[in-house]
UniProtKB/TrEMBL annotation:
Pfam families per the UniProt record, alphabetical: VapB_antitoxin (PF09957)
InterPro entries with a match to the protein in the record: VapB_antitoxin
Species name: Planomonospora sphaerica
Protein's name in the database: Antitoxin VapB6
Superkingdom as given in the UniProt entry: Bacteria
C-alpha cells in the first residue's frame, strides 16, 4: 500500500463515508476507489454485451419467460 499526502474535500469525504458505511478516512478513500473501479468494469461489461447483441453474438430470442416470471431456455 502506498502512503500519500493529499488535500480532501471534507464535505465530500463525510458524505462518501456515510454512503459507504465507513468510519475512517483511509477506509472511505479505499472503498470509494474500489467502488469506481467496479462500476467502470461493470459498465464496460454491459457495453460489451450490448455490442455482442448488436452483432448477433448473443440471441435473447431463445430465452422466454415462464408463467412464474423466471426465464427458461427454449433452444
Amino acid at each position: 500500500m502506498t502512503k500519500t499526502l493529499i488535500d480532501l474535500d471534507d464535505e465530500a469525504l463525510a458524505e462518501a463515508a456515510r454512503l459507504l458505511g465507513t468510519s475512517s478516512k483511509k477506509d472511505t478513500v479505499n472503498a470509494a476507489l474500489r467502488e469506481i473501479v467496479d462500476r467502470r468494469r461493470r459498465a464496460a461489461a454491459v457495453a460489451r454485451m450490448r455490442e455482442m447483441v448488436a452483432e448477433g453474438e448473443i440471441d435473447f430470442s431463445v430465452i422466454e419467460k415462464k408463467d412464474d416470471g423466471t426465464r427458461q431456455n427454449v433452444a
